Amino acid sequence: MPGKNSGSTKPPIRLKIQQQIFEFAVDEGIELADALKHHGYDFDDLVYEESHQWDVPRPKPLIDYKTKASGIPLVSFFTGCGGMDIGFEAAGYKHIAAFEFNELFCKTLRKNRPNWKVFGPPTHSGDVSNIAEVIETLEEIVPPNFNGVFAGGPPCQPFSIASNQRFHKSGENFKRIGFKNETDGNLLFDYVNIVKHFRPTCFLIENVPGLRDLDGGEQLSEAIKELINVGYKVDSPLVLNAADFGVPQFRERLFVIGSRNGKSPTYPAPMEMHFGSGSVLSRNQGKANNTETRIHKLNSVQRYCGLDYGQRDQLGRVDRLNPRIPSKTVIAGGTNGGGRSHLHPEIPRTLSVRECARLQTFPDEYTFVGSTARQFTQVGNAVPPVLAAQLGLAIASSVFRAS
Ligand SMILES: C[S@@+](CC[C@H](N)C(=O)[O-])C[C@H]1O[C@@H](n2cnc3c(N)ncnc32)[C@H](O)[C@@H]1O
Questions:
Q1: For the segment 263-282, what is each residue's pLDDT rounded down to a tens digit?
Q2: Domains of the chain: residue spans and CATH
Q3: What is the signed CA dihedral for 245, 250, 251, 257, rounded to 10 degrees?
């Protein structure tokens, strides 16, 4: 049974009764959800056959990274649902503008931050590949030699190993052609050109580690070379694992930081300890939004029930999380699917969007709009806000410190 962090308000179902309910569902030929309801239970009352006592320390929430406002202005590109942005916001940055071409993601941004200037549908294309439009829009708000930060993660699809495993190399969908991809692959250079136009004091590029390895690193080096040529001091690209920065999830992302005020940008220093997934996943999800969970079939739940911590259900290819170690990477899923979320460490069901958002360190009050599938996409695409906050703090103290 879970330890102190379970947050449970009532004891979970007893294994023997659970077994009887499974048999009842089979005998009556009804869905597991109905059989549970008939007995006064729901999916969140279910238990695994094996569970152990555990108690893990909780990581610092985003609010604890809140810093006296430095007021350093931030403009973000490919903003998604704003994971990176709310991290920088916590680190004291002043949000100036966001460019995102997906209307739904813009809705999430506008719902959570009605005061932000979100450039995206339906009022703006938000399309970063339309450089002329982005420049015209931004020239109204930021001056040349902008004394602030541009941050952007051009979509990782073309470089992501996870996304390529789904496609056969010779197939039309094979996307690991990176920059040869006529649309997405060139977004990095669109972003570079926008940086070159406004010459912000600091820029940040975020991507999956595949960007560094693509074409032997040639294309990323080319992008960096272009930025060095216009006066940026660029630190070597670095892959950070979010688990080393107080995020209860193993998640590797590549970052490149450049500055053009003579000061060397630095990356945040890793922490000594990791936080287990169980630290943010209780049995009771509380009153937050986006807590809906999947209505599993009986045979799926029966397979899940027999898994131990960290074990994989081979058929559904989902893993039961180990509460004592960081979660496996929270993924966005395909364009049509909602993403496969992992199995809760103590409840034999997949995680809700909220639980994934907790593993990503989003505060509970941050709401994701759209269908459940699209909510998973937004959460799975994001930079964990707590990691972003530390990047923001490191940039503020290295690049923007008073000398
Ligand atoms: C990896 S996600 C960014 C996640 C974000 N940094 C966060 O922390 O939440 C990439 C985003 O780029 C957006 N995008 C893709 N192509 C775009 C384009 N041409 N113009 C603007 N946004 C684009 C996608 O809709 C997606 O939201």
A1: 999 999 999 999 999 999 98
A2: 62-273+381-398 (3.40.50.150)
A3: 30
